[in-house]
Amino acid sequence: MWRWAIFVPHPPIIIPEVGRGEEAAAAKTIEGMKEIAKRLKDELPDSLIILTPHHAMGRGLHVICANQFKGDMGVFRARNCRLEVDGDPELASSLAEYMESKGLPVSRSKGRLVELDHASFVPLYYLNKTWGTLPKVVIANPLGLDYEESYALGKFLRQFDANDKNLGIIFSGDLSHRLIPSAPAGYHPRAKDFDAAVVRAFETSNAEELLSLPEDEIERAGECGLRSALAFLGMAEGEPISVLSYEGPFGVGYCTAIWMPTKAAKGGSSGVESHPYVRLARLSVEHYLKTKQVLDPSQAFSLSPQVDLWSKRRGCFVSIKRLDGSLRGCIGTISPVRENLASEIIYNALAAAFEDPRFMPLSEEELTGVRFSVDVLSDLELVASVDELDPKVYGVVVEKGLRKGVLLPDLEGVDTVEYQLEIAAQKAGISSLKGAKIYRFTVERYEEVEKDL
């Protein structure tokens, strides 16, 4: 079962033993790497797959079947910075065979002791600092795949069955290498557009823009991470990706991002699988039903210690639906009104359960028959034209005078911009859109999902 996937850059300079103080220029990237490590503190997998553009390359996806990997940062003036990790040749062979069965071109190499490339070493360095150990590793290079095949690789990875092993995967890749005149691959004034497209793709969990990039735009960027990025997006299958950082301090674009599955994996046990945001929403309601008290923040922290719950402020909506999909309650905030996202979720969950005027308060007997979801909102963006709207991608806020109506994106039956605006206006008692302001926003949606038997 897949536990998580991360997209990370691989500049050796962000390792302190290499940077020797110069790593401070990449502070955002280092914080992103540390944030990933914190989120994965209790998520040590049985085996770890690394997709890197800098190891041995062959036809199609090149899979390295090794008993052990070993490397150091000697070429970057830090020979004493070393890593050794066991390989998982059985998993490597299974992965190669599975991808071949799906029609992807695959090549392989074997070895007892194989050198770690720097694009694998850098993320392993940060994970090793957190875990104190490393799981068995499989390394593969996607550079022999075209872009469509790279995206398909991600989708096939999502389906890959590792015989009840818990798996994690690292998609290693730097973005444009031509962001500034002193960049290592030269400079192009539009190289930054490529990086912006990748970040947008992650934020929307949608690969369409990247798959339609002209070849000359890709060439202008001088990238090494597009295939890894496309595979990362294919694996997420449209589920929310959290972008933790982006910067280009040395003329090379560095992005850190993480995906943790919200959909149940095949072969899972019965019950409900949920993201920490959704667990917090449910726990808040359960706690109130039992104690008639709001869940104390200190208790909430012990249940959901994810750093971003406590460090960021975002508006959010909590929805409660019956098992047949019908709504049982939905309340939220367009902009944050609490001190952090954790408190925002707690209070909006209680409001959705007990204060939605369309429904009676939720009872304890109903808990097993409802499912929670949490939508975390982006900042509002004023639109100049309805052409900028898409009901599947953007939620809307219609504002006129003191009245304000909101509708979340990607709702069943809401297929046109006109109908989306009509519903949002009706909710606020706005009879005409003339003179109204229209805002759009995106959401990161987290849902409770039934696990397959």
TrEMBL record:
Q: Give the matching InterPro entries.
A: AMMECR1, AMMECR1_dom_sf, AMMECR1_domain, AMMECR1_N, AmmeMemoSam_A, Xdiol_dOase_suB
The record ties this protein, via Pfam families, to: AMMECR1 (PF01871), LigB (PF02900)
What GO MF annotations does this protein's record show? ferrous iron binding; oxidoreductase activity, acting on single donors with incorporation of molecular oxygen, incorporation of two atoms of oxygen
Q: Where is the AMMECR1 domain?
A: 272-453
Q: Which PANTHER family does the entry mention?
A: AMME SYNDROME CANDIDATE GENE 1 PROTEIN, AMMECR1 HOMOLOG
- Its name, as the record gives it, is AMMECR1 domain-containing protein
